[in-house]
TrEMBL record, chains A, B:
Domain of life of the source: Bacteria
Classification of source organism: Bacteria, Pseudomonadati, Pseudomonadota, Alphaproteobacteria, Rhodobacterales
Gene3D superfamilies: Chorismate lyase-like (3.40.1410.10), Winged helix-like DNA-binding domain superfamily/Winged helix DNA-binding domain (1.10.10.10)
Gene source species: Pseudosulfitobacter koreensis
Protein name: GntR family transcriptional regulator
CDD domains xref list: WHTH_GntR
Keywords: DNA-binding, Transcription, Transcription regulation
Keyword Transcription: yes
Stretch forming the signal peptide: none
DNA sequence: CAGAATATTATGTGCAGACATAATAATTGT
DNA sequence: ACAATTATTATGTCTGCACATAATATTCTG
């Protein structure tokens, strides 16, 4: 016995080792917390913390009374962090640039109205470009609900992106993100400086503050862009 | 006083409320755990649990001695769950289908060798199609290192996808995922039943078991595919 | 024997107290 | 004034105990 696993990370490591080594095979019921605690020479709370962490990673399924078992099909959960674009660009060691293309109050097209559930309201429409080292990096097409973002109408967004302003000044409670690929239209190709029809990575995000829609944004990245995540 | 926040979820709710209501504005230092505990009428451990959860969600930054402050730019962390393709298809209510296109032992092209760090070794190359309701859903192009996946050479992968077999039989310790967009080549278009040059959503994943590479897979999804995630 | 009531059990969570650790602030020595 | 040492402080975590809760197993009852 290598003796005592005294902290929860050590216990977690040992649990992971047993899962990877197939000592606990997928589907297996593992010993209960109390038993593991006495085996590891620590308190049950410590085992609980460790198992909870592993379960959050998707490798264990826990149910009261039923016990803890190794997940049959560990649903890999890639956590991709979506930062402010400026930050993203600067972290790649590039110089960030920003240019406003359009700013208007308009009644949005049907898909946007449907996604934000804003009926006939006119929304603030922002189109802007983000640059990395002078080259187009991403095209931002955003609709903002003034109801959900007080003070937004006073912002020109000529030098600061809506991206950053909203994040700092507008609270939100929930949102959803969709990632997809689409072909560049002629207009998009012109803005991004690529060929029409080029495959572009698209990120569409809706943000809500309770029941009220805040914003919907579609980011079209220049060709070659990829998002990375670890497992 | 709406009286005691007795469990950590209630404390978490209250903390989130204060952040959203800007009672604690971005950048602000919030009271320390002990103070909050006495304010909320619970133990410090309970406040700790709540704050830790909020910090994990990216809304708080915590540092020893420095204290806890509201994140200036809450890095949105979208957690996308990457399940087995069969599962993904069936969850959409579609009938799943699978067809093996190619199975061979080959020395992989340079990019794959570089990504897996396998030098001159020959790897098992699998190309397969996944169907949803009879229509091509995703094209799988996979390289498997027999060193990292014992028993894989005995598998025909004619009716079961490598995707599922590996997940169930091969342990791994880490992996990385890249999401991108790319144009369909003529061959890919033929397999997926779309036009050449169509924008396709691509997912490339490398998997490792400790220091040894297990597999690298590129999934090309049929046009229109999107990945969803919540914030 | 079917179905309802009850007991059992594993996880979920709370508490108070203790010590560990990292980061900052204050003090000291040169 | 500056650098090195020491004190302080907020978070991080462990412990042992208690009770809550959900899910299963068992017993009781018509």
């Amino acid at each position: 016995m290598t003796t005592a696993f005294r902290n929860w990370q050590a216990v977690q490591q040992e649990v992971l080792r047993r899962i990877h080594a197939r000592e606990w095979a997928p589907g297996d019921l593992i010993p209960n917390e109390a038993d593991l605690a006495s085996e590891f020479g620590c308190a049950r709370a410590t085992v609980n913390r460790a198992l909870r962490a592993v379960a959050e990673a998707g490798l264990l399924d826990r149910k009261r009374k039923a016990g803890t078992r190794v997940a049959l099909q560990p649903v890999a959960r890639a956590t991709l962090s979506i930062a402010v674009i400026r930050q993203e660009v600067e972290e790649k060691g590039a110089r960030y640039g920003y240019a406003l293309l359009e700013r208007s109050m308009t009644r949005p097209p049907a898909p946007v109205r449907a996604a934000l559930n804003t009926a006939d309201a006119t929304l603030l429409h922002i189109r802007a470009l983000h640059f990395a080292d002078g080259a187009p990096y991403a095209l931002e097409d955003r609709w903002i609900n003034p109801q959900g973002a007080p003070g937004v109408l006073d912002q020109p967004f000529e030098t600061t992106s809506a991206n950053e302003w909203l994040l700092e000044h507008t609270p939100y409670t929930r949102g959803d993100i969709a990632l997809s690929a689409q072909s560049a239209t002629v207009a998009e190709a012109r803005d991004l400086g690529c060929d029409a029809g080029a495959a572009l990575f698209a990120l569409t995000r809706n943000t809500w503050n309770g029941p009220v829609a805040v914003t919907r944004v579609r980011l079209l990245f220049a060709p070659g862009h990829s998002m990375q995540a670890d497992l």
